TrEMBL record:
UniProt name for this protein: FdhF/YdeP family oxidoreductase
Gene Ontology annotations for the cellular component aspect, listed alphabetically: membrane
GO BP: cellular respiration
Recorded superkingdom: Bacteria
Stored PANTHER family: PROTEIN YDEP, RESPIRATORY NITRATE REDUCTASE
Cofactor(s) in the UniProt record: [4Fe-4S] cluster; Mo-bis(molybdopterin guanine dinucleotide)
Family: Belongs to the prokaryotic molybdopterin-containing oxidoreductase family.
Residue span(s) of domain Molybdopterin oxidoreductase: 125-499
Domain Molybdopterin dinucleotide-binding: 652-756
Molecular function terms, GO-annotated: 4 iron, 4 sulfur cluster binding; formate dehydrogenase (NAD+) activity; molybdenum ion binding; molybdopterin cofactor binding
Keywords, ordered alphabetically: 4Fe-4S, Iron, Iron-sulfur, Metal-binding, Molybdenum, Oxidoreductase
Length: 769
């Protein structure tokens, strides 16, 4: 696809210098500690780094800016309550490197666009507000007042509030998120797309429909009380390393683990606890008991086969294969589900899943014997066309077994960003929820908009047709995180103004509207003083615990502003005489924001007291106690569709996944240690037989092409690597391959881009192309 402005592809296509090493046998160990220390001392210096690490995830400290895995309710390890990748996340934020006005003066935007995400991130923390004016080649400093006035003027000049788009990434605190959505709604729109739209939206859709709440129903200590944990479409060794400690507890208490993944991810298989000397010196612990190497998007077929197996067993030898009492008392639509399921044959389903039959049997028998089951999942289930079906089918399994709302059993969608769940609880959602909006309107004396806003995909399309004219990103990296990079770039370039509230330079500063503004903010680990008084914020983790987070590091520049204050100042400037309260006063003392939250959002009554409890507090969760909060009060069985992806000759189904050295679009380094791939990200992992058949020699350079509904998308210069991956399936890294993800290939119902189900063909490069 051609770019509209500028001649460069939005994502640089050059290769670095690939090195292959042995795949390690287990996760963590000394290498992890070495890597932690290297990252911390290189970026932040050892003193500042350790000052931060000692407070991370400790009671009274700050929440790790990495993933949303919960901290223990009780004792926290003195040796450190963090993992290798959490330490990298801190190193990245606590870096002493600075992207100063001098940096922006020395590098034109067109030059920076050719830098990789890795190089961009390594330029350091942004130190002052910056503006890129129409026709200029370089960003230059602008005062905070000047920036707010410019943005407010553009917003107020729009024909309709719906011409503005307000994106949120999931690192934003509850306090900032609440103010943000309030401002956006007082301004007059529900255009609140967020990273969740590309992440666990499918889980939210499926769980709200089936059990009445879009969140996990288990607590951390359920991992030590369960018979069986099933981990689907998730790579915890890299993306939630502290989950491995919970899985270790499962094993210590005699529980079993089934992993369902197209890749034999090292972190899932064997583990050494980095903070236990006995572990470090001893043998690694086996984690996974049964590994099911499913084909990409083969999960519904596999789950259906397991469900059918259980039903057959219940009808033959094992009446207790199902929990009939639970099904009768707590659920609906069982008969519909059953008659639909019986249309299938186990053999056929298992073949479609790609899992060897004996393995399927072994897993099904283990499930048959287990009473208390936890199912965990992440992006491997949520980013497909039938992603909502994936999650609903997993729920069917738990409902069948009555393993929900019990000790040691339930659903566990493992969230990504550290506060993505909290942001949604605070009202960051494009969907207009009447009750919530009514309350907001009464409490803050305004008339909220009652029509739905744009989610991520709809926002891109609106900007493409020139409907969205101002884009404001509260964190995140919209251009790199979204699908269809060149199309999205054109959409952003259609805007009159693009604004990014950011900590570090990223591609979204370089793919911009007529005018672009960067507002540099404090990060999690930074000290936040308002009127000289230290403030803390709060976040909600993956298991619905809300707790405080207070940074302790000196900010790298005196010009940085906190997110709540940035939003308040912008709101005050934009709403002017229409503001119904003093925004700046509220953002000067975060207790005042929390008081407002406690008046509007259920579960947050007495917020200021509860959040000061050392480990925070749990939000109400009906299904945790078998109170299903669906309209009928019953949990819902559903009927679901297996994959409808069909591959023509020479086509593959591609998943875009994370390496061990990245946090989404922030690239910490070029290595993927657990997969043996070093110093290169432009790789495509392929089955060795597929390589042979396609006559693509190992390590040759290939181009990837995606054909979708008559449109062709190409990503050049990838190195083909033979890997243990099912036939017909390939893997690339996100965000380099996002250019291939078609904007219209989205999950039914949740509208999440199907970035794990991209159909591609692969061509060996010939000289000169
Ligand atoms: N260090 C680090 N931590 C992170 C992040 C990060 O980038 N770096 N990102 C954070 C965020 S926002 C999120 S959402 C999470 C993401 O956490 P994950 O979901 O673990 O991340 P992905 O790399 O997208 O991995 C998806 C896994 O699903 C598998 N998979 C892909 N397709 C399928 C399929 O069809 N079926 C099955 N069964 N498996 C499949 C892949 O092989 C891979 O192991 O991590 C969070 N934590
Ligand atoms: N192909 C493909 N695409 C995907 C995915 C995939 O698996 N495959 N995964 C999707 C998922 S799960 C997600 S969650 C999205 C992620 O989408 P985003 O959340 O938009 O992306 P991030 O890379 O997490 O955002 C990184 C940027 O956030 C800014 N930042 C960091 N800390 C802070 C802070 O404290 N405050 C503020 N204001 N800014 C900060 C920095 O400037 C940094 O450059 O990507 C999605 N896109
Ligand atoms: Mo995510």
């Amino acid at each position: 696809m051609k770019t509209k402005k500028g001649n460069y592809p939005t994502t640089p296509e050059m290769l670095s210098d690939l090195k292959l090493k042995d795949i390690p046998e287990f996760a963590t160990g000394f290498k992890a500690i070495k890597s932690t220390m290297e990252h911390i001392s290189r970026e932040a210096g050892i003193g500042r780094g350790l000052l931060g690490l000692n407070k991370m995830n400790q009671k009274g400290g700050f929440d790790c800016p990495g993933c949303a895995w919960p901290d223990p309710d009780g004792h926290r390890s003195n040796l450190g309550e963090y993992c290798e990748n959490g330490a990298k996340a801190l190193a990245e934020e606590a870096t002493t490197l600075q992207a100063t006005p001098e940096f922006f003066k020395n590098h034109r935007v067109s030059e920076l666009l050719q830098w990789t995400d890795y190089e961009l991130g390594k330029s350091g923390r942004i130190t002052e507000p910056m503006i890129l004016e129409p026709g200029d080649h370089n960003y230059k400093p602008i005062s905070w007042n000047g920036a707010f006035k410019k943005i407010a003027d553009e917003l107020n000049a729009l024909p309709s509030p719906d011409d503005a788009i307000f994106y949120t990434s999931g690192r934003t605190s509850n306090e900032a998120a609440f103010l943000h959505q309030l401002f956006v709604r007082q301004f007059g729109t529900n255009n609140l797309p967020d990273c969740s739209n590309m992440c666990h939206e499918s889980s939210g859709s499926a769980l709200s429909e089936t059990i009445g709440i879009g969140k996990a129903t288990i607590k951390l200590d359920d991992f030590s009380k369960t018979d069986l944990v099933i981990i689907m479409g998730q790579n915890p060794g890299t993306n939630h390393p502290r989950m491995l400690s919970a899985l270790e507890e499962t094993k210590r208490h005699g529980g079993k683990i089934i992993a369902i993944n197209p890749l034999p991810e090292v972190g899932l298989l064997k583990f050494k606890h980095p903070q236990k000397l006995s572990d470090m010196l001893g043998k690694p612990k086996e984690l996974t008991d049964i590994f099911l190497q499913v084909k990409i998007n083969g999960d519904v077929a596999l789950l259906k086969a397991i469900l059918l197996f259980l039903i057959n067993e219940a009808e033959k030898n094992h009446p207790d294969a199902l929990d009939r009492e639970f099904i009768q008392h707590y659920t609906e639509n069982f008969d519909l589900f059953l008659s639909d399921l019986k249309l299938n044959s186990i053999r056929d389903l298992v073949t479609r899943s790609g899992v060897p039959y004996n393995r399927f049997l072994e897993a099904s028998e283990l499930i048959l014997r287990s009473k208390k089951i936890i199912i965990c999942w992440a992006m491997g289930l949520t980013q497909h066309k039938n992603a909502v079906d994936n999650v609903r089918e997993a729920v069917n399994l738990l409902l069948l077994k009555g393993s929900i709302g019990i000790e040691g059993g339930g659903v566990c969608p493992v969230r990504g960003h550290s506060n993505v769940q909290g942001d949604r609880t605070m009202g960051i959602w494009e969907v207009a929820q009447k009750d919530f909006l009514d309350k907001l309107g009464v409490r803050f004396q305004f008339s909220p908009p009652y029509h739905n806003g744009y989610d991520v995909v709809r926002a891109i399309k609106a900007m493409e047709r020139q409907k969205g004219k101002v884009f404001i990103g509260l964190g995140g990296n919209f251009i790199s995180a979204t699908p269809d990079t060149e199309l999205t770039a054109n959409a952003l370039r259609n805007c009159k103004l693009t604004v990014q509230v950011s900590t570090k330079p990223n591609r979204s500063h370089l793919v911009h509207g007529d005018t672009a503004i960067i507002l540099p903010c404090l990060g999690r680990s930074d000290k936040d003083l308002q009127n000289g008084i230290p403030q803390f914020v709060s976040v909600e983790n993956s298991m619905g615990i809300v707790h405080s987070s207070q940074g302790n590091l000196q900010p790298v520049s005196k010009h940085l502003m906190s997110e709540p204050m940035i939003i308040a100042r912008l709101a005050q400037e934009t709403l002017g005489p229409n503001a119904t309260f003093d925004w700046v006063q509220m953002a000067s003392k975060y207790d005042l924001i929390r008081d407002a939250i406690s008046e509007v959002i259920p579960g947050f009554e007495d917020y200021n007291r509860k959040v000061r409890q050392p480990a925070g507090f749990y939000l109400p969760n009906g299904p945790r106690e078998r109170k299903f909060t669906t309209p009928s009060g019953k949990a819902q069985f559903t009927t679901n569709k297996p994959s409808d992806v069909t591959l023509k000759d020479g086509e593959f189904i591609m998943m875009t996944i994370r390496s061990h050295d990245q946090y989404n679009t922030t690239i910490y380094g070029l290595d993927d240690r657990y997969r043996g791939i070093h110093n290169e990200r432009r790789v495509v992992l392929m089955n060795r037989e597929d390589l042979q058949l396609a006559k693509i020699p190992e390590q040759s350079i290939v181009d990837l092409q995606s054909d979708f509904e008559g449109e062709k998308r190409v990503a050049k210069n990838f190195i083909a690597l033979g890997y243990d991956i099912p036939r017909g399936c390939v893997a690339t890294y996100f965000p380099e391959a996002n250019v291939l993800v078609p904007i219209n290939n989205v999950a039914r119902k949740s509208n999440t881009p199907a970035s794990k189900s991209v159909v591609v063909s692969i061509r060996k490069r010939t000289e000169g192309t």
